[in-house]
Design goal:
Blueprint lengths: L1 E5 L3 H12 L3 E5 L3 H8 L10 H11 L2 E4 L2 H7 L2 E4 L14 H13 L4 E5 L7 H16 L5 E5 L9 H7 L3 E4 L3 H11 L9 E4 L1 H32 L3 H9 L20 H14 L5 H13 L2 H9 L8 E5 L14 H11 L3 E5 L4 H8 L5 E3 L3 H5 L4 E4 L11 H7 L4 E4 L6 H6 L3 E3 L13
Parallel strand pairs: 1-2, 1-4, 2-3, 4-5, 5-6, 7-8, 9-10, 9-12, 10-11, 12-13, 13-14
Helix pairs in contact: 1-3, 5-6, 9-11, 9-12, 11-12
Length: 448
Amino acid sequence: MKITVFGTGYVGLVTGACLADVGHEVVCVDIDPAKIDKLKQGVIPIYEPGIEDVVKRCVAEGTLNFTTSAEEGVAHGVLQFIAVGTPPDEDGAADLQYVVAVARTIGQHMSDYKVVIDKSTVPVGTAEKVQAAIAQELEKRGTQLDFDVCSNPEFLKEGSALEDFTKGARIIVGTDSDQVRDLMRECYSPYMRNHDKLMFMDVRAAEFTKYAANAMLATKISFMNEMSQLAERLGVDIEHVREGIGSDPRIGYHFIYPGAGYGGSCFPKDVQALARTAKTIGYHPELLLAVENVNLRQKETLFAKINKAFDGDLAGKTIAVWGLSFKPNTDDMREAPSRTLMESLWAAGAKVKAYDPEAMEECQRIYGNREDLMFCGTRNEAVKGADALVICTEWKAFRTVDFKWLKEQLNFSIIVDGRNLYNPDDAKAAGFLYYAVARGDSIASPVQ
């Protein structure tokens, strides 16, 4: 099939590359000339395991092309995916200006039947706005052309997006058109050789399903973080609780790891957007608001623990930070717990020595050059001469450590483990003041 994808960000590039990799002829459109030039040269603007190889292979085979020409993109595909950003407005609502702009562009240039597919995460009712925008442009041209708009939400996790796209549990399409059903089935047929993953429903249900899914996962995380707060105060090891409730198949082990709070481009934005939608229809979304509030509070726990360790005197201290991205296998720092931690450390007069396998360039882009922020080439370099260590991200490189060696590197034997990577008994036996998330505070006293 001939397919066009508007947007070469995270969703657009993964969608375009994966569809091209199974033989479809895909053109990706973006308004940024520099970005398109780099993509043509095989320079990938995002970090996602495996994406570079797929893009280079498909470009070499001629199944994937990039352009800044909207006219070329509209002319190319019968399927027109809209995969541009939907950033939050000041009130938390999804900003649809880029989605609507693409819809208008399609209406301005189309000359035959198109299926316009909302791939971006968009609130209920967006397909109707896209439909209206295209119809208005056709009316301006004095042209009557058939077209359909459907919803096909993405369910991609950063760090495993290629597998999620190609081996995901379901492919949801919101439409009431038999023609769209046939075309979307043809589009996704390479991924259904094992079994039929397509789920058809009405457009509004498909739009809502995406938000409901992310809100449910965010709720599980915030619930467990709420339990961790109770467990700390009750002297309960939350890991035992996690294992106990996760063994119940009705609950499961996914998304019940206590930690420093969720971040990234999806959960914070989508929970806020769904809450905003609820308010616009006169409903007070108590649970959604609580999920967000618990998450914001949880992000403050890392600083609270390191501040406690130094008895409130962090001025002049140097803190090693392992992990900057909001999760492993990405360079994304949007809403990352590390940002809350570092900004609080700086406000308290402390310095940061940071290491992350992928996100240091992004961190420098966000914060620029600062005297109180030092980037280190390895995890070892970050802890050498630092006063304490805080772990923000569960990268594999941090999952094991030689406590004897670590004690020799740090000025004070202090670890704040925001991801519960280590056994508290081992850390304490090595003489560390070890603060994890509801795993029992250390036997030692704060530094005097």
